[in-house]
Amino acid sequence: MFGLFNRKKSKDQLKERLKLVLSYDRAGLTPGRMEELKSELLQVISKYFPATENDYDVKLEQQGSRMIFVANLPVNK
Amino acid sequence: MDAKAIVVTSGKGGVGKTTTTANVGAALAQLGERIVVIDTDVGLRNLDVVMGLEGRVVFDLIDVFEGRCKLQQALIRDKRVENLFLIAASQTKDKSALSEEHMQNTVKALLEGGFDRVLIDSPAGIETGFQTAASAANGALVVVNPEVSSVRDADRIIGLLEARGVTETRLIINRLRPHMVQRGDMLEVDDVLEILGIKLIGIVPEDEKILISTNIGNPASLENSGKNGAGTAFRNIARRIRGEEVPYLSLEVSKGLFSGLRRLFGGN
User: Fold this and answer.
1) B169's torsion region: left (phi>0), alpha (psi -120 to 50) or beta?
2) Are A18 and B156 an interchain contact pair (Cβ–Cβ within 8 Å)?
3) Which of A9, A26, A62 sits opposite B185 (nearest CB)?
4) Which candidate, B54, B143, B150, B242, has a CA 20 to 30 Å from the CA of A20?
5) Does B153 lie at the interface with A, CB-CB under 8 angstroms?
6) What is the mean pLDDT of chain B?
7) Count of A–B CB contacts within 8 Å?
8) Position A4 in a domain
9) Contact B197/A17, CB-based, under 8 Å?
10) Is A13 in the B-facing interface, judged by CB distances under 8 Å?
11) A8 or B85: which leads in pLDDT
12) Which pLDDT value is given to residue B252?
C-alpha cells in the first residue's frame, strides 16, 4: 500500500542519469575511460595508503561554468 | 533580447523548432516588429506549410545564395500579419548548397534593409545545416522537451553555440505536461534549468491546439488560445524577447488542491 509513496519518482532518476551523462559529455570522457581513471587513481593512492577502502567516490561536477574533478577516497588511519 | 538575428535550434528533431519559429515570429510581427523567418532545413522544408504559405513559394534561400533571384523576390509575405515575411528552404537541393558566408550576408542585408529581427529555423543535428543557421546569429532560442534525449542534445547545442560566440542564448521548455510533472514523472522547469544552466525565456504546455492550428497553417500565437494555452505561451515569449517582463503562466492542473504547483512554474 506504500508502493505509490515509496516509488522513486521517475523524474528524479532521470535527473540523476542526465547529470551523470552530461558530466561525461561535457568533459569529453566516456564512462569506460572514467572507470580506468578510477582504478589507476586507486593504484596510485594505495601505494601511499595501503588499506584504501572500497567505498570511494570519484566524479565530475559542474560548478558554475567550471568542471570539477572530485575524488573522495577514505583511507585507514 | 538584444540579438537581432536569432537561431531557433535544439539538436534533437521533433521538439518544436519550426512550430516555435512560426509562432514566435508571428507574435513578434503582431507586436509591430518587421520580421523575417528563414527556413534553413534544406531538403526537408516545413516552415512554409506550418505557416500556411506553401502556395506562395516561388524562390527559396538557395536561389538567393546561387544568384537565381534577388533577396526581395524570395521574401514571401504572410497572409495574416503585415510585417511578417518568410524565406523558404529549398526542397530539392541538398545541404552542400549551404554556405555560411552567404547566410551571413543574407541576414545582414535583411537587417540593414529595414527588418527589426530575423528568426532562423535551424535543422536538427549539429552538422552543416545547424552550423550554417548559427553562423548568422548573435542570439539563440534553444527548444527543449523535458525528456532525456532532448535535454542531452540541448546541452550539446548550448556548448556548440558558445563555441561559435553566440552569446545571448535562451531556453524554451516546450510540450510540458503539468499532469506528469505533478506525478513526478516529468522533469520540472527548475530541474531542466539546473541541468542546462541557461536562462529561461518560455514554458510552453503540451497543447492539442498546436496540432490543429498547424493542420490549417495558422500559427496558434495569433489566436486567443485561452489563458494557459500554448499560443499564449508563445506570445509571451515574443514579449519577453522584446524586453517586457511577463509573468510565467501558471500551469497547475487543478486549482486549490495543487495550488502549490504554481510556485514550481513561477521560478525566474
Assistant:
1) beta
2) no
3) A9
4) B143
5) no
6) 90
7) 36
8) no
9) no
10) no
11) B85
12) 58
- Which CATH code of 3.90.1300.10, 3.40.50.300, 3.40.30.10, 3.40.50.10840 fits the domain covering B8-266? 3.40.50.300
Nearest-Cα residue of chain B relative to residue A28: B156
Q: Which residues pair with A63 in a beta bridge?
A: A66
Kindly state whether A21 is in contact with chain B, defined as any CB-CB distance less than 8 angstroms.
Answer: yes
Which of B145, B194, B183, B192 has its CA nearest to residue A9? B183
Assess whether pLDDT exceeds 60 at residue A3: no
Give the domain ranges of chain B: 8-266
ipTM reported for the complex, 2 dp: 0.74
State pTM to two decimals. 0.84
**Per-residue model confidence as pLDDT tens digits over B60-103:** 999 999 999 999 999 999 999 999 999 999 988 878 888 999 99
Q: Which residue from A minimizes the CA distance to B190?
A: A15
Q: Are B88 and B39 in contact (CB under 8 A)?
A: yes
Higher pLDDT: A75 or B225? It is A75
**Residue A38: which domain range?**
10-72
Angle at A44 between CA A39 and CA A45, to 5 degrees: 95
Which helix (H) or strand (E) segment holds residue B5: the answer is: strand B5-9
**pLDDT tens-digit profile of B114-142?**
999 999 999 999 999 999 999 999 999 99
Any idea which residue has 558558445 for its cell? B162
